[in-house]
Amino acid sequence: MLRLLQIRRSRLSSLTKTLIRPTQDPSPTTPSLLRPLCTTTSSPPPSSEAELRKYVGYAALLIGCAAATYYSFPFPTDAKHKKAQLFRYAPLPEDLHTISNWSGTHEVQTRTFLQPETEEELEALVKEAHEERRKIRPVGSGLSPNGIGLHRAGMVNLALMDKVIEVDKEKKRVRVQAGVRVSQLVDGIKEHGLTLQNFASIREQQIGGIIQVGAHGTGASLPPIDEQIVSMKLVTPAKGTIEISKENDPELFYLARCGLGGLGVVSEVTIQCIDRHELVEHTFVSNLKEIRKNHKKWLAENKHIKYLYIPYTDMVVVVKCNPLSKWKGPPKFKPKYDEEEALLEVRDLYRELLKKYRVEENNENDATDINELSFTELRDKLLALDPLNKDHVIKVNQAEAEYWRKSEGYRVGWSDEILGFDCGGQQWVSETCFPAGTLEKPSMRDLDYIEELKQLIEKECIPAPAPIEQRWTARSKSLMSPASSSAENDIFSWVGIIMYLPTMDARQRKEITDEYFHYRHLTQTRLWGEYSAYEHWAKIEVPKDKDELAALQARLRKRFPVDLYNKARSELDPNRILSNNTIEKLFPLTENV
What we know:
Layout: H1 2-20, H2 35-39, H3 47-72, E1 97-100, E2 107-110, E3 113-114, H4 119-132, E4 137-138, E5 155-156, E6 164-168, E7 173-177, H5 182-189, E8 194-195, H6 207-212, E9 229-236, E10 240-245, H7 250-256, E11 265-272, E12 274-275, E13 278-287, H8 288-301, E14 304-309, E15 315-323, H9 324-327, H10 339-361, H11 375-385, H12 390-405, E16 409-414, H13 415-418, E17 427-438, H14 445-459, E18 468-474, E19 490-500, H15 506-531, E20 534-535, H16 546-559, H17 562-572, H18 581-586
Parallel strand pairs: 3-5, 4-5
Antiparallel strand pairs: 1-2, 6-7, 7-11, 8-12, 9-10, 9-11, 13-15, 13-16, 14-15, 14-18, 17-19, 17-20, 18-19
């Protein structure tokens, strides 16, 4: 279209030159522009015909512009259930890396993505970046929903520093490079009869990343994973490599153990392990009324426990895990339904809705055999049909409740296998941590929080999918941990809300994202202040609004030793080469630090 306009413009220019060219005998009293027009031999068209031609030309131009705009716009109005048609960008330079987090919610392009293979290489990279004031933000496996490790100016990743260095069977301690993944570590030490004390839902995190963001498992007597670290090496820009522990520089150790990657690159850690053991997992369904009767006893009696709430239903899925030795052998229990029978209703609902949406939306679904899909994959398929329709989401939640009802039973396996959890597909998730009393005397405010949250969802008609996950940990002595406390017996509850991104349709993902942030904002304004709840560092999102950001900064100062953290940043990383936008926004350095 631009070319067409340029051609028209050039023709108009040549026509103008013709019009203003003077005749051989111009009149001294007549402007040369008018003479050719007045002396032409052909008679001018009638004014009505000229007007008609003018408006026809305008109409043609308008139609042309509309057509060009329609075919240039990548998301037509019927694109709701179609895959996104991406804009055609110019090819990226060969040295430009695209790095995104697992959920695809945060992405950067960078020319600097460093992967040292040895500690010496890492030290040289950090020293050089410090001298050149060049950013190299530490990034782990990229599993954090908020992309806390990403920075377009440059990143350093320790995936190639993934060795198990030393195993002390007597003290049950292992020394590893920080780039080792949890799955690699567990496989590497099982021959020594050791394992980790607790696990998060996913086993693909790098050890350095999982401790720096304060990740956790579940069990009211078990602390977050950072509390298992007894010593660590930190490669700092200003002071080089330092070794810290509770005996050697304890103040910095407890600050840097959950340091958000802002104090140095964690290169090596020593972890306190426990004996490898099997667990018996007991899954059953209950309701909030029954849980209130048994909650205190269940927290105290079970090594690991979590509740999964299904919005718009009364059902709560309870999952307890305890050492096999406590049971004196595997439990004798025969389930009423096998996995195929448990999935039957979910598959039937999918077939039913598939026909409906094919007719109403004229949508061609893929030919995947639904009998090969897991429950979480089926849930994604169901939600993708109409993810923001509350009534549709309620149907999916009800099918999930039926699935869990038919999945009641026991499972026996090694702890690292049992404690893993299929979180589903790409998603937005917000998880908050708040005090819940002590193990001897739970406050019960953890259940109050859930009741208010469920009421909020129903009152605001939020299309909230399942589950709302609730877990517990003991306190952490790491100063920046959301579960940080000086009281030894304190326990904390962690509650996660979720919205899945079950489609690659860009327009639909944007709509889900907007609805998620509305959902999150409601919980923030109605619940966080009342319950002293703070978001998980891997899930906190930096507000774009200046006033909201200022309020968040002030709130973080009430909970965490921000001045102490910033003082350490200034001493260890004065050029801020390890920080990114998230760190700078949450913890702005002031003149008096």
